[in-house]
Hints:
Largest sheet: 2 strands, antiparallel
Amino acid sequence: MRPVHNSLHDEVAVRLREQIFAGELAPGSFLDEAALCLSLKISRTPLREALKVLSAEGLVRHEPRRGSFVAQVTEQDLDDIFPVIALLEGRCAFEAARNATDADIAALDVLHERLQKHAKARCINDYYATNFAIHEAIITLANNRWLAQVIADLRKILKLARLAQLHAPGRLDQSLSEHLAIHAALRVHDSEGAEAAMRTHLSRQRVALRELAREQKSRRLA
């Protein structure tokens, strides 16, 4: 077995987190410790430490005498989280509009050109990656580490469901329009406009996920 260092369980947590986000470890699935130790070539100690990290992040659920499971994001979770993250990212957009330099705006121009290209090509995964980069850039421009820290924690949970909303009918084009509205406000340093546009963007993501869940339920009952 490999020696146990503090960095090892962090490395294991990163790998498991990536597998969860990629859907390789499906929501609700049982995390077989013996199988994971074998596949990752580690002992149980760093694995269990990694699972504690993921449990604290809300990505893994531990049940006494049963073991650990990949967390499932419920409709109630989404109803609770989206209004909060809309407020937080809205504030980031407000601060970003005040702080952005010409160079920052130019960098955002490039990202939005890329976003439009992916939307036109209907490349949802590439669109999502660029969308994520834009949100990260705005959070960085806000320059508030407390906002960034809380948002990062919430986004780990939302990442389990957020990509799905882009598959809702018409959502990709709607998302692009919302991003362009945010960017337009940032370009003219309109803090209140950027905040309102970001809050609208996040709120509509929740609406899209709700509509998608309703549609999937109807298909199952049909």
